[in-house]
């Protein structure tokens, strides 16, 4: 119990720091002025950066930049491609999935740490892709329409699926969650509990897939609206509080990486079954409600 309290305290402290960083990001956006000599209204910031989840934006991205700059990976290994890094991420995710099957909480926490290494590699492959294509390494943009972009998405899906499926198997075996213990008094109740657990994990996986599709859709929409050509109007839209709020909400819940962060926290606290139970309906309401709000906002700013 004491260790759980320490973990929760550390998590609250981390999210408080993320909130402070978000406020600093908002102030940075407010300082933007129109510049006719640039095609982007963001100085070293992109729409994707604002909508990216906290862990990737504030932890993994700086780490990947520091790692590449210190080791000079792309210079020392000119044949290294972003796809190689993506493949390595799948391998690490597979190892994490195997480790998380353990009945020991400390070992499952090691699996969480391993999956965070996969998250780091996912950020690193984007950096390697930008360097190899000559894009600015400090601006987080997706290189769409390329084989690497497709490979990255497939590798992410495989890694997420392996880990979530492994946690499902482990949850079936351990039946630690009190939400399912009460249903396990006899074989029929145990069968219902297993079906309920499978339903909840499947719905969580579906939420992640929907979040991925919607998040990419609105990144494209905001990119086309704000980043294709800088004008006084687009800068004013960018600086509006509502625009930041919409993008910030996608950062906080409306993307698969943030959902996975919540899931990893649940695994760390040994609460994965309870977590997927709690979001199996509310999560869909949040995603589609946010999508509805974003569509209304997009329609309003396009008319403007």
Automatic annotation (TrEMBL):
Keyword annotations from UniProtKB, A to Z: Membrane, Transmembrane, Transmembrane helix
InterPro entries: CDP-OH_PTrfase_TM_dom
Chain ranges passing through the membrane: 196-216, 248-269, 281-298
Organism: Oppiella nova
Protein name: Ceramide phosphoethanolamine synthase
């Amino acid at each position: 119990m004491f260790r759980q309290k320490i973990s929760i305290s550390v998590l609250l402290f981390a999210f408080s720091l993320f909130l402070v960083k978000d406020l600093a990001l908002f102030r940075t956006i407010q300082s933007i002025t129109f510049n006719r000599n640039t095609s982007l209204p963001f100085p070293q910031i992109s729409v994707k950066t604002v909508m990216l989840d906290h862990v990737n934006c504030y932890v993994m991205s700086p780490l990947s930049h520091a790692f590449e700059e210190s080791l000079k990976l792309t210079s020392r290994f000119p044949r290294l491609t972003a796809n190689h890094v993506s493949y390595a991420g799948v391998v690490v995710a597979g190892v994490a999935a195997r480790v998380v099957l353990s009945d020991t909480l400390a070992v499952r926490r090691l699996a969480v740490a391993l999956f965070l290494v996969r998250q780091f590699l996912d950020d690193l492959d984007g950096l390697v892709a930008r360097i190899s294509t000559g894009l600015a390494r400090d601006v987080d943009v997706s290189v769409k329409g390329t084989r690497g972009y497709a490979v990255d998405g497939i590798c992410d899906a495989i890694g997420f699926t392996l880990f979530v499926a492994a946690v499902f198997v482990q949850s079936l075996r351990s039946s630690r969650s009190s939400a399912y213990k009460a249903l396990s008094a006899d074989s029929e109740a145990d069968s219902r509990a297993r079906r309920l657990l499978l339903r909840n994990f499947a719905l969580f996986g579906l939420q992640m897939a929907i979040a991925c599709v919607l998040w990419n859709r609105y990144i494209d929409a905001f990119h086309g609206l704000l980043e294709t050509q800088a004008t006084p109007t687009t800068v004013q839209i960018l600086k509006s509080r509502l625009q930041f709020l919409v993008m910030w909400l996608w950062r906080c819940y409306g993307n698969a990486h943030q959902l996975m962060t919540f899931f990893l926290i649940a695994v760390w606290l040994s609460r994965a079954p309870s977590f997927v139970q709690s979001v199996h309906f509310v999560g869909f309401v949040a995603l589609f409600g946010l999508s509805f709000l974003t569509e209304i906002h997009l329609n309003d700013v396009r008319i403007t």
